[in-house]
Amino acid sequence: QVQLVESGGGLVQAGGSLRLSCVASGNIFSINAMGWYRQAPGNQRELVAHIINGGSTNYADSVKGRFTISRDHAKNTVYLQMNSLKPEDTAVYYCDAYVTGYSDSTRHYWGQGTQVTVSS
After folding, report:
1. Rounded distance between C-alpha atoms, residue 49 and residue 71, angstroms
2. Strand pairing partners for 118?
3. What are all long-range contacts of 104-112, with beta carbons under 8 Å and residues at least 24 apart?
4. Bridge-partner residues for 10, per DSSP?
5. pLDDT at residue 53, rounded to an integer
6. How does the average pLDDT of the chain come out, rounded?
7. For the chain, which residues score pLDDT lower than 70?
């Protein structure tokens, strides 16, 4: 089993910045990809950013140029640097990861989410 724990959410004014972190722990042989999704009230969960082992990234069009995803492989951690935040970025942000365990198959895991609120 693998646990993903997010941190770094909070309340910020429009134009401000936040940095989210997500640490993976447990039965981890390798982490193939990690990412961030978000879900605002009444909306479906949507991809924000994703990073794979080779370092390739992809972003939602709405956050390109403002958000940056990065990984620390040694710490099993993924970060999301969010700059120039807008009220429409308000949502619960979820970390996800595709993890291969020892003597195990690759499975998909979700974190519990962290709230980001951007005031106008």
Report:
1. 12
2. 12
3. 104/27, 104/29, 106/32, 107/2, 109/2, 109/3, 109/4, 109/24, 110/4, 111/4, 111/5, 111/6, 111/22, 112/4, 112/5, 112/6
4. 116
5. 86
6. 96
7. none
